[in-house]
Amino acid sequence: MTPPFAPRALQDSRRHAVRRIGLLQPLHWLALGWRDLRACPLPGLLHGLLLASFGLLLALLAHRQFWLLTGAFSGFLLVGPILATGLYDVSRRLQRGEPAGLGHALQVWVPRDGRLVVFGVLLAFAGTGWVVTSAAVITGLSPQPITEPLQFLRRVVLAEQGWLFELWLAVGALLAAPVFASTVVAIPLLLDRRIGILGAVFTSWRAVLENPAPLALWAVLLTGLTVLGMLTAMLGLVVVAPWLAHASWHAYRDLVAPEQA
């Protein structure tokens, strides 16, 4: 049975046309994101510094519970889009030729719009769910305790027998794929236009279904660059996180056509 609010959300979504893009368009988004970061570096670098500091703190607190650490960093990828909301507004202002700075990025976090707050809470639940699921898979199925990175590498990633690592990856992909499809344009869309949460999610899914190959490439780029940032003792996130945030704004602008007058 279709929920009564679903037809209204679908109608809300269809007011925002989705465009088809080329396979390599995500590379153009990265170029535009880098341009925005260079044009207005302070909000982005502070954003990246906070994320890198949080990652280091998490690593220090959970370094003896590596099963928790792997899930926490994977969960970070799920909630990352909502954390970049202020930088979407910076890119929007730069695109319009308006002044953009740290104050504008911070204004977005003033809780005037309940839609972004609710969406952020939902993403936090998704991230928490993955942390718990990841911990359950690693601790429940590993034949030996996993407390350190080298133990995870030897006993899970490089294990000669068993399918624990493959199962862990499959479960992660099963959760990450719908979250990515639901957020790829939803948060910039909520920031930029008057649309309900479910309507924004439907629009995001329509964008993915219309452009499966380019957005699969985009997902790989987002994940790969974020992991590279983490592997540099989190220091790379200072630049990578805002770069990807600005690029995500341009992904939204390419994928969702302007509103009709």
Please explain how this structure is put together.
The chain is an all-alpha fold. It has one domain (22-255). The chain is built from 13 helices and no strands. The longest helix has 28 residues, at 114-141. The model has no long low-confidence stretch (mean pLDDT 82). Pfam families: DUF2189. The chain crosses the membrane at residues 44-61, 66-88, 116-142, 163-191, 215-245. Keywords: Membrane, Transmembrane, Transmembrane helix.
Layout of SSEs?
Elements: H1 5-14, H2 25-39, H3 41-61, H4 66-83, H5 85-96, H6 102-107, H7 114-141, H8 149-157, H9 164-183, H10 186-192, H11 197-210, H12 212-231, H13 237-255
Helix pairs in contact: 1-11, 2-3, 2-13, 3-13, 4-7, 5-10, 5-13, 7-9, 10-11, 12-13
Organism: Aquincola tertiaricarbonis
InterPro entries: DUF2189
Protein name: DUF2189 domain-containing protein
